[in-house]
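Exam revision sheet. Question 4 asks you to relate a sequence to its structure. Input first:
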Amino acid sequence: MTINLLKKSLQIDFLQKGAKCSLEIHETTRLDWETTPNKQIKVYQDLLVNLASDLLASAIIAILGFLIYMFFYWRNRKEQLEFFGLTTKNPNIELYLSRLQVKPQGTEGLIHIDRGFIGPAIIKIENDAALRVRQELEAKVLALFPQKVQDWLGRQSINLKALKIPIKIGPPKSDEGNVHEYLNTNLILLGSKMYNLLSKYYLEEYLPKHSSCYCYYEKNEEGERIIGIRYKEGNIDDTPMKGRSYGREIGFIHRFRDIESNITVFLCIGHGSSATSGSVRFLMKRWKELHKEYGSRDFIICLAFEGQIANEEPIVKPKVVWKKKVD
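Answer key, structure tokens:
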């Protein structure tokens, strides 16, 4: 019994001492905070200073990153606009697609129709290529700014102008005598003289008159579409390129300065819509290389689409079969 009482006494004494120790520690801590309020303030100040420093460093890095991005964007944009002929005096460009004029009873419906659709239609493959041009040139990054900021930036520099590029159907045949009404801004023309009146004007009238060499688009005696190079002096062989009869589609890109209308024109023409669209895709993918090679000079590039099915997708990767700077 004496031993048990002694054990209980030691336990009580130990617990009391532990509680007392704990109480002393707690009281000491509480008294330190209460008697030194400046320490609390200093801790909060240090936290705020560290937070502000982190935010400032992040802001500086973000601003520097944005400025570096804008510098390279501006330089790339400057080269791009130069290549496509956009200047302060003429800061716009338009795309014209082939015009397929549908006659009465020229369409087939899923149900019986008497007349059907009448009017102009477009080729999907061509339109897809035109949308790619517009997407590339309209500068999506500038669209993130408010409209007033966009307008202000556009007034400061053509390189910071947010472009709005229309895609239009080629003029009707009835406007053949009024072609010059459409030649008041830079142009990208898709489609041959069969369906694009503006292409027809340049291939048959303007280029034979003003260019030392140009591409021709015709039909041979067998009715096959042919594309070749024709020289103004007329003493150089203008044999057409190997095309559809050799299992490939031919397309070409001709950039030139229209000195009569003071605009830059791109002709993107192929045997069919697949080669036309492929030529446009090549132009938009390789414009930097072309700009480096030709600068502001006129040029012609002929492309071969080996094994390409006419007027169908997918479009195969072309290879360059002929190119030339044009005087």
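Marking note for examiners. The radius of gyration is 36 Å.
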